[in-house]
Design goal:
The complex is a heterodimer of chains A (231) and B (163). Chain A is built from 9 helices and 2 strands; from the N terminus they run αααβαααβααα. With 231 residues, chain A is an all-alpha fold.
Chain lengths: 231, 163
């Protein structure tokens, strides 16, 4: 595919994503932050569904040697980098996708976050040019390099090559694990819902009991007491 | 049009995005945002610094700057799609953070996101929608990092909210 065609395909994909994310209010930050802080899983479930679909599809195509999987060495820098990112996205209230989408809705805070993401990237490029860590792509070997805190490269395809088991089999195992998390969240939500229902029923019962009990105590007409209860 | 009047279920939206992304994976590669943002950073820096930028080896060894990098256009497309969605649903209006503390948090958050993406070579999108579905070892490392970071970030945020 030509470079221009790649850019056009990427733009069309991005446009549809931007539209769908804007209309659904999906946010990756909310998928993690809301689950941790508010025990609310609206975005978390959506994220899990997408990951299940992608795991089955990607590993199926990787079994056949199709597709363009990411290929680079990984290591300790992924943990520290995404840890910093995780703190940053909660503080900024937006992730990489929602900064673009919220900017598109006219949110100047999101545009400011985007600007400082660029500044952060540039600052990192200055530091990298001094310490050369993590290793540049050209010096990656795919093998562990413990001196540079690198574990090498491994994915479903390398598992297939080493173990002789189709990549999709591992993909199905991962999908089952993701589905188990999804089900656990659904159970938790149902338990929360049942608890709210019980609390609401108890509240309704308490309100219904009040008019009967209170007039006797007050010695006056029930209407006044009901109005007092509502306040 | 109904689509622009009601909020779409995020589960439906993400399932549709995932199906579209399968095609992107087959023709170019998985969805990512951080790479495009880095290239944009390089292009902006080059506009200001010119050839001086090449004195920083990062921009020759890791990210040689060029404008026809497809990942840039995913981000620009997202911006375009969001503008279309917001305007068509009459949800486009200027939103400006009011308190100074909000500006400080956004500034700090943006910086941490930028540094984090480059340090990890991946962003949250390539973690959840690329590396992990490919069962890349880096995906699992990155997920543990982002969950731990979101947890710490939430603690900080809670403390700030509680004053």
């Amino acid at each position: 595919m030509s470079t221009v065609a790649e850019c056009v395909v990427a733009f069309i994909f991005g446009s549809v994503v931007g539209l769908l994310v804007q209309r659904s209010r999906f946010c990756n930050t909310a998928a993690l932050r809301d689950a941790i802080m508010f025990k609310s899983y609206r975005n978390t479930k959506a994220l899990l569904v997408a990951m299940m679909i992608l795991t089955v599809a990607f590993t199926t195509f990787m079994t056949l040697g199709a597709g363009h999987p990411l290929e680079f060495d990984v290591g300790f820098n992924q943990f520290i980098g995404l840890f910093l990112f995780g703190v940053g996205m909660v503080l900024a209230g937006a992730c990489t996708v929602s900064t673009w989408v919220k900017t598109g809705e006219g949110n100047l805070g999101a545009l400011w976050a985007l600007l400082f993401t660029f500044i952060g990237m540039f600052l990192f490029s200055v530091v990298w040019s001094w310490n050369y860590w993590p290793p540049a792509p050209a010096s990656m070997t795919g093998e562990p390099n413990l001196a540079a805190l690198q574990l090498g490269f491994a994915n479903a395809r390398t598992l297939q090559d080493k173990l002789g088991v189709p990549a999709v089999v591992f993909g199905l195992v991962q999908t089952a694990a993701l589905f188990a998390i999804y089900r656990a969240i659904r159970r938790k939500e149902m338990a929360q819902h049942a608890k709210h229902e019980r609390a609401a029923a108890e509240h309704r019962a308490a309100v219904a009991d009040k008019p009967a009990a209170a007039p006797a105590a007050a010695g006056g007409p029930g209407v006044k007491v009901v109005a007092g209860g509502r306040r | 049009m109904e689509f622009f009047r009601k909020t779409l279920d995020p589960m439906v939206a993400l399932a549709a995005i995932a199906i579209l992304e399968i095609f992107l994976f087959l023709v170019i590669g998985a969805w990512t945002v951080g790479g495009g943002e880095t290239m944009m950073t390089g292009l902006i820096a080059k506009a200001f610094l010119g050839d001086e930028l090449e004195r920083l080896p990062f921009w020759t060894l890791v990210f040689p700057v060029h404008g026809d990098y497809w990942k840039i256009y995913i981000s620009l497309g997202m911006l375009f799609g969001a503008v279309v969605g917001a305007v068509a649903s009459k949800e486009f209006y200027l939103r400006i953070p009011r308190r100074l503390s909000e500006w400080v948090l956004i500034t700090l958050g943006g910086l941490l996101m930028g540094i984090g993406i480059r340090l990890a070579f991946v962003c949250n999108v390539s973690t959840f929608f690329g590396l992990t579905p490919e069962m890349n070892l880096g995906g699992y490392i990155a997920i543990s990092g982002i969950v731990a970071g979101a947890w710490v970030g939430s603690l900080i945020y809670k403390r700030i909210l509680e004053g």
